[in-house]
Write a structure and sequence with these properties.
By secondary structure, the protein is α+β, with helices and mostly antiparallel strands. It has 8 helices and 10 strands. The mean pLDDT is 94. It binds iron/sulfur cluster (2 copies).
């Protein structure tokens, strides 16, 4: 126990409810309709599995203990986008204006939600640590030193698709956030299948590969540089992104109205 701070139990059910209410309030705060559906959250204890991060993600990927030496749990959440936004981004080979706006607003939401969860944990006597939703990566290697996707995979929030995104029980069209905490919140997986991508399960699909405007996707490979160049090109050349932050790196064609956009299609087989 820390001096003067009472450490009391907090459950993943409480954290999930907190996140759901936080996201539900966001449209009212912004005075807009909002882009988000109910978030989902998975968690796991800090154990041996996280030692594989340098092998499965960037070779200099951080361990949860690098963020917080006393961390006992990892929490990863996914905020799904509304269908209307994903549908709007389907047309053409460039992202729509709203996709860029939603990216910016969602990163801000993820940052504030993570801070709010951290404050809630602190009220219960537990420290936590977090990293930004994006742009915590090496631009030469194009790999994150803290990959929410890989953390989401390890806590069993989802599985990787051929499009290199995480497919959760609520699909892949949305954004991820994560934090580490001293709280022992236990094992709370959400994905129920070994794979969540149809093609990886041996079923015909590959729709994301066909949708990529720069052919960055193939069944066993991802042209990281080709994808990144496209994101930069979109940001630099689309007039309707000119008022958005320089960090608005978006495309999202491989997530737009795919079999895995809003659910885990393998769970339906
Ligand atoms: S579109 Fe099909 S092949 Fe691509 S990730 Fe989704 S399920 Fe897999
Ligand atoms: S984000 Fe765009 S460029 Fe990158 S893989 Fe998906 S469709 Fe291709």
């Amino acid at each position: 126990m820390k001096s003067g701070v009472q450490m009391d139990k907090i459950t993943v059910a409480e954290l999930r409810k907190f996140a759901e209410e936080f996201v539900a309030h966001e449209p009212g705060r912004l005075g807009t309709e909002g882009w988000w559906l109910t978030p989902i959250m998975a968690a796991a204890p800090v154990d041996e599995r996280f030692k594989q991060l340098p092998q499965i993600a960037a070779d200099d990927h951080l361990h949860p203990h690098d963020l917080l030496p006393t961390a006992k749990g990892v929490i990863v959440f996914f905020i799904p986008f509304i269908k209307q936004l994903v549908k709007e981004n389907k047309d053409g080979d460039r992202p729509c204006r709203n996709w860029g706006v939603a990216y910016v607003q969602t990163n801000d939401l993820i940052g504030r939600l993570s801070q709010a969860i951290s404050s809630l944990l602190k009220e219960h006597g537990f420290k936590s640590a977090l990293t930004p939703a994006t742009h915590n990566f090496d631009e030469a290697k194009l790999m994150a030193r803290w990959s929410h996707k890989h953390l989401g995979y390890l806590v069993n929030l989802g599985r990787f698709g051929v499009h290199n995104m995480l497919i959760t029980p609520e699909g892949c069209a949305g954004r991820l956030g994560s934090l580490v905490t001293e709280a022992q919140i236990g094992e709370h997986p959400l994905i129920e299948t070994d794979e969540a991508c149809l093609l990886k399960s041996g079923v015909e699909c590959g729709k994301c590969m066909q949708a990529c405007p720069v052919e960055a996707l193939s069944e066993n490979d991802f042209d990281r540089r080709g994808c990144w160049d496209r994101l930069n090109e979109n940001r630099d050349n689309l007039d309707y992104f000119s008022d958005l932050p320089h960090s608005t790196h978006v495309c999202g064609k491989c997530a737009a109205i795919m079999p895995c956009s809003f659910l885990n299609p393998v769970a339906l087989l």
